[in-house]
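thought: user wants a sequence for this fold. calling inverse folding tool.
action: design(structure=
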């Protein structure tokens, strides 16, 4: 619990720093489908990121996102979430735009439930436009813990853990419930979550496909940079591989000569083929 409070303090200080700076997000992200966000009364505690114009004939896989500090501000990570959405994903963040208060893992499940329902609801702008068979749960810091918990849902097809790891050995049983490929994106040894993430890495279920990428940028990583910086680029590639089967994106992560190997990223792999 002490580490959880420390996660919260670090994230709060980072929020003050980010709030003092001008917005740096490039409008729409760098992907082929410029993205924006919206809210809906059908899911009032969330912020929905999507292509401004949902492309014809393209179905959007689902990405549910938990914020650092478990903060209910759906636009705190706007840069990286617009980046994800611009590559053709429906990204649903916990919390309303500029919201406050706390979130929990159940809100990630609520996001998935809403997206599945919208895909078949008459009158929905998303009717028939969501790929409900491809679902990612992701989160930063405390939000990464939410993603861990939500990953027990059998609909989840990949998990993304950003600057996070189990806070106490008594929670390690949750790792055994991981059933889909998992990726860690961590800020290197200076990241407060580094030892926790590395400990989790050693405890993953045998045979589980997993990727670990460390970049020496600390706990708040590159989220304040345009499009989420390197974490936005690499996180988008992981989603594009895992949820869309893109073989070019796969090459960043797989093999001894992977695209991230031999770069500033420190790379580890398990069972990736």
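)
observation: tool returned 273 residues.
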């Amino acid at each position: 619990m002490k580490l959880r409070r420390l996660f919260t303090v670090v994230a709060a200080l980072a929020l003050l720093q980010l709030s003092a700076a001008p917005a740096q997000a490039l409008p729409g992200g760098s992907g082929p489908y410029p993205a924006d966000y919206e809210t809906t009364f059908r899911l009032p505690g969330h912020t929905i990121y999507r292509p401004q114009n949902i492309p014809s004939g393209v179905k959007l896989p689902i990405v549910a996102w938990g914020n650092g500090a478990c903060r209910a501000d759906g636009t705190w990570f706007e840069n990286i979430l617009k980046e994800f959405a611009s590559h053709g994903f429906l990204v649903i963040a916990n919390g309303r735009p500029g919201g406050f208060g706390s979130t929990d893992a159940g809100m990630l499940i609520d996001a998935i439930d809403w997206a599945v329902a919208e895909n078949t609801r008459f009158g929905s702008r998303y009717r028939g436009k969501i790929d409900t068979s491809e679902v990612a749960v992701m989160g930063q810091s405390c939000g990464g813990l939410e993603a861990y918990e939500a990953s027990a849902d059998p609909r989840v097809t990949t998990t993304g853990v950003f600057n996070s790891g189990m806070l106490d050995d008594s929670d390690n049983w949750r790792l055994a419930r991981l059933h889909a490929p998992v990726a860690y994106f961590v800020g290197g040894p200076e990241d407060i979550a580094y030892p926790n993430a590395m400990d989790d890495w050693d405890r993953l279920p045998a045979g589980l496909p997993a990727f670990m990428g460390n970049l020496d940028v600390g706990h708040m990583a590159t989220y304040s940079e345009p499009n989420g910086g390197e974490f936005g680029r690499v996180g988008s590639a992981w989603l594009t591989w895992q949820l869309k089967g893109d073989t070019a994106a796969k090459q960043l992560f797989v093999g001894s000569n992977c695209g991230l190997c031999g770069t500033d990223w420190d790379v580890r792999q398990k069972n990736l083929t």
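thought: summarizing for user.
answer: Here is the designed sequence. The first helix runs from residue 2 to 20.
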